[in-house]
Amino acid sequence: MATTIIAQPSVLMPAYNPIKYIIDNADNNDPGFRYIFTIYPAGSATQIAQYKTLPVYGTGYGEQDISKLMQSLVTWNFTNGQVNESWYQYDIEFGYEFTSNIIYTNSLVESGGGDVEIQYTAHGFVLGDQISITQAAGGIAANPTVEGLHTVVYAEANLFVINARWDTVTDDTINGTVTYADLRKTQVLDDEIIEDQEVFNGAYSLGIYAQGEFPSADYLGTTNLSFALTSLTYPNYAALVSGSGFFYYLMCRVYSGVTYTIGYYNTANDQLIYGPFSHTPADGLYNFTVDVLTHANQDWYVDIIGDNGSAFRYYFQYDNRCIINYDVLYYLDRMGSWQHFAFQLKTYEKGQITREMYNQHVDGQVVSNEWVYSSTAIGNRTLNTNVAYSLDLNTNWMDQYNADRFQELLTSPQVFYVNNDGYSYACTIEATSFENFRQRNKNLIKQSVTIKLALNTPING
Amino acid sequence: MVRIQLNTGYLDVKEGTSFPLNFSIGDIRDISKRTGNFSKTITLVGNSNNDRLLNHYYDVNIQAGTFNINQLTSCDVIQDGIPVMTNATLQLINIKKSQLTSAYEQMVEYEVLIKENRGTFFTDISNKYLNDIDFSDLDHAVDSDVVIDTFDNVLADGYKYVMPFNINNIYQLNWFKPAIYAQTYFDRIFATAGYTYTWDGLEAANFDKLLIPYNGDQKIVNWNDYKVVAENSGVTIIRVQEIYPVGFSFSGIDQGKLGPHTLTTGWSETIDTQNLFNTTNGQYTTPQYVQPAQSYVYEATMAGEVFLDFNSSVRVIGNAQYRVYLRASVAGYGNVKCYLPPFYYTDTVNYFASPTVISLGAFNQIFTFNASLTSHFPDPQLGIDVGDIQIMQVGVDIGYNDVNQNVHWRQFSASSVQTPDIRLVIDSINVTIRPSDDVPLVSGDVLMNRLIPEKIKQSDFIKSIFLMYNIYAIGDPDSQTNLILISRDEYYDSGKAVDWTNKLMKDKEQSMIFIPELSNKKLRLSYKADTDSPNTVYTGITQEIYGQVEITFENEYVKGIDVKELIFSPTPVQQTEFGAFLPLLNGAAPKTNLRILYDNGEVIANNVVIRSGYDTITPTGGAYPYLSHFGGLDPFNPVSDINFAVAQYYYYQVAQNTNNNLYNTYWRRTVAQINGGKLLTAYFLLNEIDIQLMELNDKIRIDNSWWSINKIIDYNANDLVPTKVELISLETEIDLPNFG
Questions:
Q1: Nearest CB to B61: which of A52, A71, A113?
Q2: Contacts of B507 in chain A (CB under 8 A)
Q3: pLDDT per residue over B311-330, tens digit each?
Q4: Measured distance CA(B502)–CA(B690) in Å, rounded
Q5: CA distance B400 to B590
Q6: Residue A139 forms beta bridges with which residues?
Q7: Among A126, A276, B33, B582, which lies 20 to 30 A Cα-Cα from A219?
Q8: Predicted confidence (pLDDT) per residue in B597-624, tens digit
Q9: Residues 87..106 of B with a Cβ closer than 8 Å to A: which?
Q10: Distance CA B263, CA B130 (A)
Q11: Angstrom distance (rounded) from CA B472 to CA B492
């Protein structure tokens, strides 16, 4: 029973895209057949999950998508440096199970004790086994006592005897299938193995109309002109940088033993600041902080060069416009890196208050031998007060590329708001719809967004 | 915010959904009902964390991993960092999923239930029976002396033999049946379910003195103790025939029968508790004398084949008959043979050239025969004595109409002739040897697992004990698997005083109803009726069940009767002519409904003799176990009673009866609470601190009234919202705090 791999995902895959394995087995019509997919952490024997699937009607293939499982094993971290929580490496084993059975084709014979003897090479049954026999067409009529449940009363390597009398057999040439009475199964878990498959906390898309094949090799970080795991486009467009101190985290696939050096250059290829900004990460994913700490005053690009021959390069557009606010939103982009978006125009901060009250018992007091209410007694009591803060943020004018980035910001699951004081606050985007402006239709693009702080102010009682 | 803590992490609850927790220990609407804390359906979000902790069960193909839907999963409910329900179990009951995009299993939600652990105890035992419990550690050898020795047994011994009522002082050994202590059952039910219990009032309630007599018709010892199961791997036996000279007889030459052959080799055994069978020589040593009318029973399955081995050219005259037999020889004296159906051989034409083999036929047959001894010469002996050797014999008898004949053959050759040898090939023999059922045994091994009342559910047993003592089971905060058992009155007396005056949400409707309107006009607490003579006579005269109590409530608007019944039936007690007070059980026909008796220890009356075997007599010296529904050594002046109330009459004249019965001791205050009680349903502003500190026996003060909690309904741990609470007014005898 050989398992054949029909389709498999790339070595490195975004966890939020389909991660589907398709396998085949020539014996998938056997009784009780199931394909088995077993997933382990890479190099470990501790099982994470096991799936048993029926053959797909029509093709007979076994198909299993493990993307949802992988999504539960990766997450994000808003930090620079190693971020292996966004990455998971696993091994997957392909196997199968089927109801243990033999199909005998030799004629039945009489045993020494007058019972029915079945001859089959290496049948595997032993004395005392409870078995079930299903004969081929005509078997029930010809050999009624052979059909059904029996006990093995004698067994050798290539024959066994059941507790059915030979003198009831009228046609010894009818074939039959023998299974254990409890329909126990034969199971093989590791007929084929794929090791060191990787996923990261990302979702890859070519655009809103197409999913596209994920170009895994471009993101593996082993070639000159490698891609970081970011939705920033390489190298034709430049993302806006609102100013010094506002950074990007570029998440890259890196390898232990490799030294990575970051260099910043202007468009004339002059180095802007000098290092060394070298990193020696462990195997996995790494957030490189991209920030020209000294005010660059010009457009620039960053090179992350690994001594294994890999090179990552991204362009950034210096934004030197006058600003009203230094409000910035950091957001997790589709591929797991962190980008920022500046909201330079006026910001509006709002709050919403809700209260719940109930009427409670009022104690009185005795004054001059008379029972009266106390003037400070509380009848209606506030049981719960909530305040929720929201901010309306406004962008400056922007080009088509950054307008597209804004769309990604609106749908990002993780966003942090940084205000003028430089403090970070977790927040949620309130927008439920958007219009993706096209520069060819609308020359000037400006957007607004309302955010709600994720942590409410506590109120005493 | 509320979270559910598992051993593997925290489950996230869906925001904005209800997390309804219900707290209750009993319900005044049904005084026999015991409830626990539980949740209604709780919705969990389908995020990565929950997916991982719940083993990705949204995928229909997933196999059980660290979380298994079929196994109990422990959990605590934590609201804003404060545990509001601990020692609970979580059950995943539903997974809802939808896909709005092409993403695989995009949106998932889980629905779970949470149940307090004491709830799972009753679930665990709900389908188990008393005879599922192993009592083999109480197995023992028994004879009349052992029975008498158990009369002063206590709980630590586990069991005691019950002396049933008898008209005179002559008893048979088999009338005595062992009774296992109710607490022994109780302990093992909890232990096998993986639980323990703490019942501080156990000894005060004398629960350790209650016995459950065996109520079936199994004898305490039977032939199983002397049973032997042996196997023979096979043997070939040949009867070589005599060689006759030429022309010996024109009328034919004789062929002789085979055997009897004693089976001395090839033996092994699988059961031989008393070591009676010797596998080296096939001998069974008689363990006990049996009279001629009784016997030892042999059940054997023998497989094999019979052949005729031709030595010279002969042909049979007529239709010859060959019959294989088995029998048991006792003390060298053969018994009746047990024959197979005959094999026939006839061929009046052919002379077989030597050597030729003919199979007369194969057999695989069950033989059932007896070993007995009515008399034999020269040493007259009636019955089989202890030590007599029994051994199996096999053979093939031959003949025509009668198998005790010779078969005649005609010769062909001119040389000397010989009729065919008879060859019996035995492939296997499986035999069971035991005394017959009608042999009265003197002694034997008592297997206690055979003497456990049948078809009694463990849950029914526990519920009946709870009903007798009006017991509440509460979870132990220090142990997940320990239940604290406490009687209702003790439980409510020990509750702390709590002021909920300012938590009452007065702007919401408060409903107050009168508890008698929730119940029937009458309440009957009773044992179960039985069909034995003492009970049917009592019921026929009084129209009541022996030991019952019937309470009539004052409310005149209600009618009907509410019956709360134990699984036990009552057992009246009567004085015997030898001065003992014994439960009215029939030793000769012991099958009854389940009983429960109070063990007052060993008491001395006049002598009784116990007969065993054919002629063994053992005196008791007057000792007997005083088992009754009454407690106290003096039957005329009892100090306690496990009946619910005083009976209309007794089967002997009680001098000074006791009022310390189950009703007065454990149920009177409950009934008083129903008779004059009120049930208030109102909304309270309860938070996680209130729930954490709340115990269901708290005495709740609201302005100028005191209440106890009947139910807390749907406390929402996921939001601060009003909680509906049912309170019942306190009965007047409850201990209240010092009012200063």
A1: A52
A2: 358-359
A3: 888 888 888 999 999 999 98
A4: 13
A5: 54
A6: none
A7: A276
A8: 999 999 999 999 998 877 788 999 999 9
A9: 102-105
A10: 45
A11: 10
Tokens of B421: 């040898």
Residue B476 tokens, joined: 């132990």
CB contact under 8 A, B51 and A68: yes
pLDDT of residue B582: 96
Tell me whether residue B564 is exposed, middle or buried, using C-beta atoms within 10 angstroms of its C-beta: 0 to 12, 13 to 18, 19 or more: middle
Question: What span, in angstroms and rounded, lies between the C-alpha atoms of B507 and B502?
Answer: 12
Q: What is residue B293's predicted lDDT score, i.e. its pLDDT?
A: 77
As a whole number of Å, the CA-based R_g of chain B is 38
pLDDT tops 70 at residue B390: yes
Which region among A164-178, A197-211, B79-93, B254-268 has the lowest average model confidence (pLDDT)?
A197-211
The answer to whether B680 touches B726, Cβ cutoff 8 Å, is yes
- Strand locations in B103-192, DSSP E? 107-116, 140-142, 159-162, 170-172, 177-181
**Which of B52, B427, B508 minimises the CB distance to A113?**
B427
Mean pLDDT of chain B: 88
The better pLDDT of the pair A289, A364 is held by: A289
The pLDDT of residue A441 is 64
Question: Closest residue of A to B427, CA-based?
Answer: A113
**Which among A243, A252, A428 is positioned nearest to A328, based on CA atoms?**
A243
Q: Which value does ipTM take for this structure?
A: 0.76
- What residues contact B639, with CB distance under 8 A and at least 6 apart? B631, B632, B658, B660
A73 contacts in chain B (CB < 8 Å) = 48, 52
Number of A/B CB contacts below 8 angstroms equals: 78
For A308, other C-beta atoms within 10 Å of its C-beta total 15
Cβ of B56 within 8 Å of Cβ of A69? The answer is yes
Q: Are strands A130-135 and B549-552 parallel, antiparallel or unpaired?
A: unpaired
Residues in chain B: 740
**Residue A18 with chain B: CB contacts under 8 Å:** 104
- Chain A residue with CA closest to B500: the answer is A361
Q: Is the pLDDT of residue B13 over 80?
A: yes
For B220-230, what is the mean pLDDT? 82
DSSP B570-622: P--EEE-TTS-EEE--BSSS---S-B-EEEEEEEE-S--EEEETTTEEEE-TT
**The residue type at A48:** I
Residue pair A131/A191 in contact by the 8 Å Cβ criterion: no
**HSE-up (13 A, CA, CB side) for residue A35:** 25
Place of tokens 């909304």: B683
Output helix, strand, coil percentages for chain B, rounded to the nearest 5.
15, 40, 45
Q: In angstroms, rounded to a whole number, what is the distance separating the alpha carbons of residues A389 and A395? A: 20
**pLDDT > 70? residue A442:** no
| pLDDT mean over A76-94 | 96
Instruction: Output the CA angle A395-A396-A397, nearest 5 degrees.
Output: 120
Output the pLDDT for position B677.
85
What is the per-residue pLDDT for B382? 74
Residues B425 and B305 sit within 8 Å (Cβ to Cβ): yes
pLDDT for the residue B28: 67
B703 lies within 8 A of chain A by CB: yes
Question: CB contact, 8 Å: B502 with chain A?
Answer: yes
CA–CA separation, A198 and A216 (whole Å)? 10
Residue B717 pLDDT > 60: yes
Residue B96 has pLDDT above 80, yes or no: yes
- Of the candidates B61, B102, B703, which has its C-beta nearest A361's C-beta? B703
Please report the pLDDT score of residue A296 as a whole number. Answer: 63
CA proximity to B592, closest of B215, B130, B28 = B215
- The reply to whether B362 touches chain A by the CB within 8 Å rule is yes
Q: Which of helix, strand or coil describes residue B208? A: helix
